[in-house]
Amino acid sequence: MLSVSDLTKVFGGFTAVSNIAFEVKEGEILGLIGPNGSGKSTTFNLISGALAPTRGSIRFGGEDIAGLPANRIAHRGIARTFQIPRPFRRLSILDNVALAAFYGHAEHPAREKAYAYAREVLKLVNLPSDPAARVDGLGAAGLKKLELARALATGPKLLLADESLGGLDESEMNQAADMLAAIRKERGITIIWVEHIMGVLMRVVDRCIVLDYGEVIAEGRPDEVAHDPKVIEVYLGTDAADVQKTVADRAT
Amino acid sequence: MKWAALVVLALAPLAGMGNYPLHLLIMCLLWGFVYTSWAIMGRLGMVSLGHGAFLGIGAYVVVLLWNHAGISPWLGTPIALVLTAVVAFVIGYPCFRFKIVGHYFALVTLALTEVARLVIVALRDQTGGSLGATPNTALADSAWSLGALQFSSKLIWFYIILVAWLAGLWIWGRVDRSMTRLALEAISQEEDAAASVGMNVTRLKLGVTLLSALMTCFGGVLYAQYQLYVNPETVSGIGISLQIVFGAIVGGMFVRLGPTVGAAITLLLAEVLRLAIGHDVHGLDTTIYGLMLVLFIIFMPKGILGAILEALEKRRAAKTAAATA
Ligand SMILES: Nc1ncnc2c1ncn2[C@@H]1O[C@H](COP(=O)(O)OP(=O)(O)O)[C@@H](O)[C@H]1O
Ligand SMILES: [Mg+2]
């Protein structure tokens, strides 16, 4: 469904993403992990059109989308969340999501339809769809859900979820992971999920790609990746043991 | 209530209003229309200091075409509108495409309005330079000429401008209820997120900019034809652009009648200043505008009408809360 090759982004003299290549198959959840600053968000910015690649190709559904503007890529069926939530703060929660439902489709639906769809999506992520509910009242978990709801409202085929677990506590993390799993299962949406920690992500993803200094250093099933010496080195062995346990638990 | 107020306004001049009060009322509606036009985009985070340019194009193009080519304002107006659209596009497209927002957008548009003024002054052989220009009169042997859009009766002008002002308020309402307004608010808050959910940021911004610029240009046409005199200082340049922004913000750019209230206030202020200080202290009014603008932006960002309506809303909410308790 998505095929990235030779993708490179240079900021000034600094190469944030260097010749990366990977494929995403329809219906899978792909984990994209790597330490902070390894180029994960930049990769998302390139795929979603927020940044134009310095070089390389991004093919989605057989067509090259590299360098298209963000709004056109959204219409093609790729939605993204932002690592640091970027809600429309002075609009209601419902308006935030309804705008995505309206503008996210190249043929704008009728307004009532966009609002109805927004309510449905808000229900899915457990946020209030009452027009009086404001963004100000949301905590970290609520803002993450709003990011997700807004992305889903555009009706994507591929969802790019950037650090959906950042700032969440243990139980919220598990909830968020389950939510992504449910989105894939019930809506058939393909997902690329970025985290800088392996943790719960390894419980849910089908396959994993590991980035370090803008390069792909490992790729494979969660159990393979968790035992890869290069990956263990990058993570300084810190949570490798935990992750290996998570992966083992999953198998049973 | 709303309609009753409108009927009173529409009939007021018939009740033997003096010429001077009628003139003030007309100016109030005319500037109310122009400030409303500005606020349609200004309230959405696009603070343009360039509206003097659009006003100037409207005023001068129609007068110059009439004086030098005998082209009727009925044809001159569409020509001025097309020219305005071109200028708004040429300035707006690069700004929006390359994400020039906030102060930088204000500065770029400020340059535009000064360029417009300098062009008018520089083409003094055609425009009369800083002395201004008067449309050749078509009223030599009749009280009015529809073809030349000249009327000696203030009453006719009152009704023409009343209709324009009402149309401006109607357009405001249409924009206010549209998805486009919500989208532009979203864009003013988080432009990248807005683009990521499918909004064509450049097109949405250009759309509302064109609307605002075209309305302002039309205001310029009406101004020139009513006053039968145009001057680079009064229809273009920093002074008038600042006055538009000042009026809209002071009145309240987030409520429909705010810009009109702002127009009434600026007019009164200008009259008072004129009576108190006279014409001599050139530039003083601009200084005072600038100073008051800063004070308002800091202490009353919603403007006078905005603040009043908010206070009323609070009181009503408190009352209903007390009633239900
Ligand atoms: N717009 C930008 N301009 C310059 N450098 C950037 C920009 N965006 C990211 N970077 C740099 O690129 C590197 C990768 O960043 P990022 O993709 O955000 O990493 P990650 O999401 O994996 O933590 C970092 O060193 C970051 O400072
Ligand atoms: Mg990141």
Task: Write structural notes for this entry.
The complex is a heterodimer of chains A (252) and B (325). Chain A has 252 residues and is α/β, with parallel strands linked by helices. Chain A contains ten helices and ten strands. Chain A folds into two domains: 2-77 and 156-251, 3-Layer(aba) Sandwich (Rossmann fold), CATH 3.40.50; 88-155, no CATH class. A six-stranded mixed sheet of chain A has the order 6-7-8-3-9-10, with helices on both faces. In chain A, strands 2-1-4-5 form a four-stranded antiparallel sheet, with helices on one face. In chain A, helix 3 (93-103) crosses helix 4 (111-124) and helix 4 packs across helix 5. Chain A is globular, with a radius of gyration of 18 Å. Chain A starts with a strand and ends with a helix. With 325 residues, chain B is mainly α. Chain B has a domain at 19-135 and 144-239. Chain B contains 15 helices and two strands. Chain B has helices at residues 2-11, 19-42, 51-69, 73-97, 102-122, 124-127, 154-177, 179-189, 191-196, 201-227, 232-235, 237-251, 258-277, 284-299, 303-324, and strands at 144-145, 150-151. A two-stranded antiparallel sheet of chain B has the order 1-2. In chain B, a hairpin with a 4-residue loop joins strand 1 and strand 2 (150-151). In chain B, helix 3 (51-69) runs parallel beside helix 5 (102-122). The model of chain B has no long low-confidence stretch (mean pLDDT 91). Chains A and B meet through helix 2, helix 3 and helix 5 of A and helix 8 and helix 9 of B. Adenosine-5'-diphosphate binds at residues 11, 16, 34, 36-42 of chain A. The site of adenosine-5'-diphosphate has 10 residues of chain A, from helix 1.
